[in-house]
Amino acid sequence: MSKDVQQSINLKVSAEIDATKQWVDEIIIGLNFCPFAKKEFVNNTICYYPSAAEQVKPALQTLIEQCHYLQEHNEIETTLIILTEGFRGFERYLDLVDYANDLLIDSGFEGVFQLATMHPEYYFADDDFDDASNFTNRSPYPMLHIIREASMARVLAVYKNPEEIPEQNIVLAKNKGSHYFQQALARIHQAHPQK
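Below the sequence we write its predicted structure tokens.
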């Protein structure tokens, strides 16, 4: 591989990681959608793993590799697999999530890891596509978020009323309005364009 091609690949990956980091900082932490994210963001214990997988099988292979990586690296708290090329359609992404959850069980990771889901076209089944509530799970790229279940249990045990977090997020999103999030995501993509 030529130096120019490798440099182009590195810039592309960097742009997608940078966009994801900005989204985590501005939206997830800035609006407190996840009260547990700031500590990991500040401590740099989030692994941002870009994957160019466009088909289910290689995407699932990446997922399992990242689960093993987390098992071997306790200093890393969580992983965001950023699907840089594939699964742009939300329904196809949901199919991947179903396969991924089955694979976690089949691979012996049930009770060890769980997945959280984010996608640029995320929408809840009972909401209109443009409803602001959907932006609680809308991200710059399709992502699979691998969460350590033991860590989640620890933070939930000390957090007051954790079951209210999703509803509070939806209320906040609706107060901000869809236009706010559309502009934020557009700005993030403009700041970190894919090469």
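The chain has one domain: 3-191.
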